[in-house]
Write a structure and sequence with these properties.
Blueprint (H helix, E strand, L loop, with lengths): L3 E5 L4 E5 L9 E4 L10 E4 L4 E4 L5 E6 L2 E6 L4
Antiparallel strand pairs: 1-2, 2-5, 3-6, 4-5, 6-7
């Protein structure tokens, strides 16, 4: 099961995978609002944290057949 915690600061998003997650790293797929925007990511914390180079407004994380949507809500 793909579980995560999302954190954000002024310029980056941090997606922390569950510490016991042992599958392949999830792919980051753009949502409708992100389709034409570049997104650079890197992996840190021993492979459990994905760091995006900007604040994400609408994407999907996909690992195998499982897909989870992440959207920024509010200000």
């Amino acid at each position: 099961m793909l579980t995560f915690t999302r954190k954000s600061d002024e310029s980056r998003d941090y997606i922390d995978l569950h510490p016991r997650y042992r599958g392949t790293l999830p792919a980051i797929l753009p949502g409708p609002g992100e389709a034409n925007k570049a997104l650079n990511t890197r992996v840190t914390e021993g492979g459990t944290r994905l760091v995006a180079d900007r604040v994400i407004t609408d994407i999907w994380l996909q690992a195998g057949r499982e897909r989870v949507r992440i959207r920024k809500v509010g200000p």
